[in-house]
Amino acid sequence: MKNGKGRASDCIACKKCERVCPQHIPISDWMKQVKVVMEDENYML
Asked: 43 φ, ψ to 5°?
């Protein structure tokens, strides 16, 4: 985490965020895809 902001690759898939998500989004699954697009393909700003 840098400056209070993390990267998708920092996700450890503990699913704590999913348990409290009011929209029941599978966040840990999405973080894998976000990592590929935003980090592996160098779209990080």
From this structure: -95, 5
